[in-house]
């Protein structure tokens, strides 16, 4: 399986991308297409003798969309950008998916332009996977692709998120919740109150409103929010996870006795860090596209890139886009009243 990778997306590109591509090709059996300025990408790739013989090739793209670029303008003006070239590889069938750690807005706009959205989907949504206290996984969407949303957008996010979770984690009836400021049906703003009425009519296992504290307790599998709230929740979570790791590490090394205890419990501490490490979960898929597009954090390291490629591979293998298209089409047909005999 071939996965196209934006070699110039992350803050420290192309080093994390090259190292992540090497790890993915070695451990996940993926053919990686590195998309970027050939001379620059080749120079970095040649620094890694371990890449010799691995299924990695370079696809030239002369332009790069930066984090400072205005998404809509850059997508139109930079026609040979790494994003557009990589997504064209997916559209043409030369790659099963595309991964980028670049500008999220530009990735969203480029994907809609090059791949297009599925029938019945107004806006793609970014779905982030994170750990829970029960040792399970949960997803939050949207986490930044759509800052302003309508109730109907949240309804579609709920349907797509439920299908994604069911496909990737094998849960037959995932619990779907709407992120709000209280559990009662009347709580929240106008958007969440209207969305609540739509979601409770869907044939989903809708558990109602959930609060921020419910994101990690394992009592809900799919949490729906608009992109503004979802992104804030995600970034706060990343900051808290970093704070907890830092404080715990500092505390364990404060005295000789604690240092000994730290050495004795190092494997447990390593496992703890791994469970809180966002890089272990790769990137967030853009749900609702005619193809696979995974968006990773701008500060992604090699491990995050490797896992984002793995997510793209699994997303394609489980045919998640096709399942979303089929179920949204079926739901739309169910809403059409039968003609009278």
Describe the model.
The chain has helices spanning 15-27, 38-45, 71-77, 82-91, 104-114, 151-169, 190-199, 227-252, 256-264, 266-276, 302-317, 320-335; strands spanning 2-6, 31-36, 56-60, 97-100, 125-131, 137-141, 175-179, 205-210, 222-224, 284-287, 293-295. The protein is α/β, with parallel strands linked by helices. The protein is globular and about 60 Å long. It has 12 helices and 11 strands. An 11-stranded mixed sheet has the order 3-2-1-4-11-10-5-6-9-7-8, sandwiched between helices. Helix 7 (190-199) links the parallel strand 7 and strand 8 (205-210).
SSE diagram, text form:
Elements: E1 2-6, H1 15-27, E2 31-36, H2 38-45, E3 56-60, H3 71-77, H4 82-91, E4 97-100, H5 104-114, E5 125-131, E6 137-141, H6 151-169, E7 175-179, H7 190-199, E8 205-210, E9 222-224, H8 227-252, H9 256-264, H10 266-276, E10 284-287, E11 293-295, H11 302-317, H12 320-335
Parallel strand pairs: 1-2, 1-4, 2-3, 4-11, 6-9, 7-8, 7-9
Antiparallel strand pairs: 5-6, 5-10, 10-11
Helix-strand makeup class: alpha/beta
- Major sheet details: 11 strands, mixed
Number of strands: 11
Q: Which H/E pattern describes the elements?
A: EHEHEHHEHEEHEHEEHHHEEHH
Radius of gyration: 21 Å
Question: Quaternary state, please?
Answer: single chain
**Unreliable stretches covering 5 or more consecutive residues:** none
Provide a count of the helices: 12
Beta-strand level of the residues, as a percent range?
15-25%
Average predicted confidence as pLDDT: 89
Report the principal-axis shape. globular
How far from one another are the termini?
50 Å
Give the strand line-up of the largest sheet.
3-2-1-4-11-10-5-6-9-7-8
Residue share in helices? 40-55%
């Amino acid at each position: 399986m071939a996965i196209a990778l934006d070699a110039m997306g992350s803050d420290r590109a192309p080093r994390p991308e090259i190292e992540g591509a090497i790890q993915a090709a070695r451990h996940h059996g993926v053919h990686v297409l590195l998309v970027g300025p050939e001379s620059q990408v080749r120079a970095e790739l040649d620094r890694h003798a371990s890449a010799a013989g691995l299924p990695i090739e370079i696809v030239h793209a002369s332009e790069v969309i930066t984090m400072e670029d205005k998404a809509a303008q850059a997508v139109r003006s930079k026609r040979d950008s790494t994003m557009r070239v990589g997504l064209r590889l997916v559209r043409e069938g030369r790659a099963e998916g595309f991964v980028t750690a670049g500008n999220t807005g530009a990735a969203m706009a480029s994907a809609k332009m090059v791949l297009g959205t599925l029938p019945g989907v107004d806006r793609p949504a970014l779905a982030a996977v994170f750990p829970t206290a029960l040792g399970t996984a949960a997803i939050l969407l949207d986490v930044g692709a759509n800052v302003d949303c309508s109730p109907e957008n949240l309804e579609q996010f709920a349907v797509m998120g439920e299908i994604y979770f069911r496909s990737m984690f094998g849960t037959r009836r995932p619990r779907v919740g709407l992120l709000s400021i209280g559990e009662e049906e009347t709580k929240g703003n106008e958007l969440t109150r209207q969305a609540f009425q739509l979601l409770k009519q869907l044939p989903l296992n809708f558990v109602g409103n959930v609060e921020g504290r419910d994101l990690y307790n394992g009592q809900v599998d799919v949490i729906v929010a608009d992109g503004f709230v979802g992104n804030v929740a995600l970034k706060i979570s990343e900051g808290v996870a970093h704070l907890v790791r830092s404080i715990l590490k500092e505390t364990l090394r404060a005295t000789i006795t604690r240092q000994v205890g730290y050495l004795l419990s190092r494997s447990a501490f390593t496992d703890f860090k791994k469970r809180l490490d966002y890089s272990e979960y790769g990137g967030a898929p853009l749900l609702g596209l005619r193809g696979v597009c995974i968006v990773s954090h701008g500060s992604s390291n090699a491990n995050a890139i490797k896992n984002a490629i793995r997510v793209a591979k699994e997303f394609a293998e489980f045919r998640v886009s096709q399942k979303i298209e089929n179920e949204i089409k079926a739901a739309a047909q169910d809403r059409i009243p039968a003609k009278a005999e």
